[in-house]
Amino acid sequence: VFPPELRFAVLKLFKRLFNCSSYCYFDITEIDGVNTNELYNAVQLYLSSSASITGSRLSLTRALNSSSTTFGLSNNDSLVDTFNGVSVLWEHVVTQRQSQTFSWRPLPEEKRGFTLRIKKGDKHLILNSYLDYITEKANDIRRKNQERFLYTNSRGGSLDSRGHPWESVPFKHPSTFDTLAMDPTTKKEIMDDLRDFSNGQTFYQKTGRAWKRGYLLYGPPGTGKSSMIAAMANFLGYDVYDLELTEVHTNSELRKLLMKTSSKSIIVIEDIDCSINLGNRKKSNSGGRQGYDGTPHEMRGGGGAGAGEDGVNSITLSGLLNFTDGLWSCCGSERIFVFTTNHIEKLDPALLRSGRMDMHIFMSYCTFPALKILLQNYLGFSEPDMGLQIMEEIEAVIDKAQMTPADISEVLIKNRRHKDKALSELLEALRNMAERRKKENWRSAREKNSTEVEEEEQEKRALENPKQGCDEEFEESCKKEEEDDEEKLN
Ligand SMILES: Nc1ncnc2c1ncn2[C@@H]1O[C@H](COP(=O)(O)OP(=O)(O)OP(=O)(O)O)[C@@H](O)[C@H]1O
After folding, report:
1. Angle 116-119-123 (CA atoms, 0-180°, nearest 5)?
2. How far is the CA of 469 from the CAs of 16, 218, 255, 450, 465, in angstroms?
3. DSSP run (H or E) holding 278
4. Distance of alpha carbon 313 from alpha carbon 162, whole angstroms
5. Is 416 helix (H, G, I), strand (E, B) or coil?
6. Contact yes or no for 269/341 (Cβ under 8 A)
7. Please, what sign has the CA dihedral across residues 119, 124, 130, 131?
8. Secondary structure of 92-135 in the HEC alphabet?
9. How many of the other CB atoms lie within 10 Å of CB of 417?
10. How many C-beta neighbours within 10 Å does residue 394 have?
11. Whose CA is nearest to atom 14 of ligand 1?
């Protein structure tokens, strides 16, 4: 007759009334104010794997695309765990959130939490060490499972059923630093830098710096920027937050998203030049550019629908920099920011200034050392194969061809069962491409030349007929004055 929530609440009340003298209770809620409570996640993971646990009813879950099954406590069920000879009781408390509850943002329909019951006499003996043990165990489990997630911000800033603004799927990108074709020295530098960063807790504490690092990956499409991010995540065992800026409409939305990211994560903004109008600076009267002044930057391509001129409703470059640099960037630790762009020349110098992005990494067209890595991975090449005559011919042409690793991979995949055919097709593709590049360079040089000649001729004409030039200038200045007057009148 009684609904389960009521039954549970009455039972809980009774239990507390009768046990109040001998037990104490600790509530670990899923959402702590605005932040996800990491202890809740740790307890959930710990309970899902602890062999010492005995429970009669467990819930089994397997995330979409995940290979592992986890079990946990069913809603409003309890189980006993033992630590250092002391028995404790865990209850998983799930209640419906009251719809009339006032909140500044939509909250999940269900309120979840764990309640830990410990005998009062045992509290001082185990509480702290038990919670430390659980956190450590949960981290071990995560590392062992290599379970990492790829998060993306939900469309239009909506929240999922658990009140998270990020949607997640298990992250299983196979790219590693071994599979990444790039200059070995740069690769080693990046790996050392990442290693130093993840082992650098004491250093960052000692120097008073936020434990975060920024990388800017730039280069033509298909040179491996996304693959590099995946390799970084796999190398460090971090989660990836793929931040779709066009779905974020205000700086405060951006801040909230950042607050909901966990530590040991890589926050990625791909194609930064397309996501936010970074070229927007104060224009002088003549239309020329002035330095960055923090004025609002509207979203490009309609992504910032509803973005207002006053900056209330739009992402600004300063907002983005606060996000990576300012106080807000420190609301978590051990975080890496990665921006990618195909057009570094379009980026605002404010983003490129030293201290903003710690490392600028150029992802170049395929070089010969990078090609060797692709050949090893795709065709199983070994050292003796590298001495083949055709390799010399390839080496001679590869830089001129300016082919991306993505294009070269395509040729190799197609012929992966026939090494010789793969190499000869590759050489042919490289030669064709080198020829095309030569023609393109020649054409653009010719265009440049003809523009220069035209300009020279114009100058010559102006010198020969100075009056005409003066008249034109005079006319131009009159026109400008008229325009200025009109503007003032308006
Ligand atoms: N440096 C590389 N090493 C190994 N594989 C690569 C490399 N670059 C590209 N590839 C291959 O090409 C595919 C596309 O590369 P990727 O998406 O990483 O390039 P990108 O630079 O991020 O391109 P875009 O700028 O278009 O997003 C990858 O799946 C990978 O197989």
Report:
1. 80
2. 95, 45, 56, 22, 7
3. none
4. 26
5. coil
6. no
7. positive
8. EEEEECCCCCCCCCCCCCEEEEEEEEEEHHHHHHHHHHHHHHHH
9. 8
10. 19
11. 222
Is the CB of 338 inside a 6 Å radius of any atom of ligand 1? no
Residue with the bigger pLDDT between 62 and 123: it is 123
* 181 C-beta closer than 6 A to ligand 1: yes
Contact 188, 371 (CB under 8 A): no
How many Å lie between the centroid of ligand 1 and the Cα of residue 310? 39
Residue range 150-187, pLDDT digits in tens:
999 866 656 665 567 788 888 888 999 999 999 999 99
Sign of the C-alpha dihedral computed for residues 241, 209, 249 and 343 taken in this order: negative
Q: How many whole angstroms separate alpha carbon 118 and alpha carbon 21?
A: 12
CA of 225 to the centre of ligand 1 (A): 6
SS3 sequence of 217-258:
EECCCCCCHHHHHHHHHHHHCCEEEECCHHHCCCHHHHHHHH
Q: ipTM of this model? A: 0.97
Cβ(29) – ligand 1 distance below 6 Å: no
**Residue 86: both structure tokens together:** 């002391």
Calpha distance 410→422 (Å, rounded): 10
Residue type, 358: D
Instruction: State the DSSP code for 387.
Output: G
Q: Rounded distance, CA 264 to CA 142, Å?
A: 12
Tell which residue, 304, 395, 310, 292, has the closest CA to residue 351: 292
The architecture that CATH gives domain 152-362 is: 3-Layer(aba) Sandwich (3.40)
Average pLDDT, the chain: 78
Q: Which of 244, 365, 402, 409 most suits a substitution to test ligand 1, by most atoms within 8 Å of the C-beta?
A: 409
Round to whole Å and give the CA distance between 490 and 415: 69
Please classify residue 213 by burial: count the beta carbons closer than 10 Å to its beta carbon, then call 0-12 exposed, 13-18 middle and 19+ buried: buried
CA dist., res. 420 & res. 417, Å (int): 9
> Among 220, 193, 180, which residue's Cα sits nearest to residue 370?
180
Report the separation in Å between the CA atom of 405 and the middle of ligand 1, taken as the mean of its atom positions: 7
- The candidate with the shortest Cα–Cα distance to 267, out of 176, 363, 332, is 332
CA distances from 381 to 181, 362, 407, 422 (A): 14, 26, 19, 12
Question: What would the two tokens of residue 410 be?
Answer: 């395509």
- 415 token code pair: 């012929």
pLDDT for 368: 94
- Predicted confidence (pLDDT) at residue 435 exceeds the cutoff of 70: yes
